[in-house]
Amino acid sequence: MPNPTAAMLVIGDEILSGRTRDSNMHHLAGRLTEHGIDLREVRVVADDADAIEQAARALSEAFDHVFTSGGIGPTHDDITAECIARAKGVPIGVRDDARAILQAHYDRQGGTLNDARLRMARIPEGATLIDNPVSAAPGFSLGNIHVMAGVPQIFEAMVAGLLPTLTGGARVESRTIRVERGEGDIAEALGQVASDYPDLSVGSYPFVQKGRFGVNVVVRGSDVDRLEAAMGALKSHFPEAAE
Amino acid sequence: MPNPTAAMLVIGDEILSGRTRDSNMHHLAGRLTEHGIDLREVRVVADDADAIEQAARALSEAFDHVFTSGGIGPTHDDITAECIARAKGVPIGVRDDARAILQAHYDRQGGTLNDARLRMARIPEGATLIDNPVSAAPGFSLGNIHVMAGVPQIFEAMVAGLLPTLTGGARVESRTIRVERGEGDIAEALGQVASDYPDLSVGSYPFVQKGRFGVNVVVRGSDVDRLEAAMGALKSHFPEAAE
């Protein structure tokens, strides 16, 4: 059975303006690979209601899971929850369980659950809450869309809590060898290995380091014996390569 | 006149698998902001022909410019040029000017323009070449799609050559203040400033540092006087904030 598929939707003006370099994408990609869920697409859209709603709907229809990051805080530009509710065609309002979580948190912290913070208790109908061990305000799963915070510490904590509840597939393993030659010199041999091992993915990632060209060749697949056989074939082509 | 809009399409299994952390997105976002082109969306797709073609077509129809990164080298997994040609419905083949650039490069370097490398001279009909001062193999612009390499040094050099040829708009300036309070405590005042300055974008980017919550408030716009006025309003709300 093929692994479940996933997409990520990053809501973030600050990434599109170049102010912030995304880290949630890289984090989620690694965790999903470990969990046997294939991340097939990432979209980054602006804090724009139509853009969020349309992307959420398209990705939700195309993939088994959609993970979102950002836009669920208390400020005027936090519109993700409303947009996801609209994408799924369900109403949204303050929910008692989410309000109780926030109330308990601010009681402990000595803060006030004011109107702005109460917006973080707005949860679409039918959603399941995602625990936020950092700052209480929960994420939620609505159908196959998992809505999480953008602050990396909170996003990572939410992912850590959510993933064990999702069915994973076979873990995709990878092996890498580093060849200190131009990509054009090794392309023919790589193509041969790729066609001899159609069940594996053979990727070629060139780099420039200190003015010299080289290639990281990455082989991926879930059958470790096949991986090792492909690596053996690559090493016979490139005996000088480093693992 | 509103600024031109843009999207970026990153072709990269290695980013979706979590192996590599993208840097081209962050680089392009910064350069486009400086040039007055609004980056509205980024998509990262796998090295999959249908995914690349469909994303390229959708983004090309929705935005003034599409910038792609990755998949134009000499190996079997470099399929971007073919996919972009299909997305635009034009034929592709080895072009004499691209072949001459590669031949001159390998003559200089003492390498061979073998069949694999000759694939990098395949250019869709009607495209304009984008100069590659690092490793010769050119990118190209086909209509509003600008196709560039994925290796960061090459991508950045191509962007540096390409952007001056594209019409930019008003440069979007930004100002940031850092408020060491929870987002929920400042949300009401932020919302007020955002509604008083509808011509500006007021973004709120929370962070957790050493266990304490804070917010970077970023105001963006192309009218510097309005930006300074909004910053004055924010400072009167948050006199303790640091710029």
TrEMBL record, chains A, B:
<dbReference type="Pfam" id="PF00994">
    <property type="entry name" value="MoCF_biosynth"/>
</dbReference>
<dbReference type="Pfam" id="PF24102">
    <property type="entry name" value="FLAD1_M"/>
</dbReference>
<dbReference type="InterPro" id="IPR056596">
    <property type="entry name" value="FLAD1_M"/>
</dbReference>
<dbReference type="InterPro" id="IPR050101">
    <property type="entry name" value="CinA"/>
</dbReference>
<dbReference type="InterPro" id="IPR001453">
    <property type="entry name" value="MoaB/Mog_dom"/>
</dbReference>
<dbReference type="InterPro" id="IPR036425">
    <property type="entry name" value="MoaB/Mog-like_dom_sf"/>
</dbReference>
<feature type="domain" description="MoaB/Mog">
    <location>
        <begin position="7"/>
        <end position="170"/>
    </location>
</feature>
<protein>
    <submittedName>
        <fullName>Molybdenum cofactor synthesis domain-containing protein</fullName>
    </submittedName>
</protein>
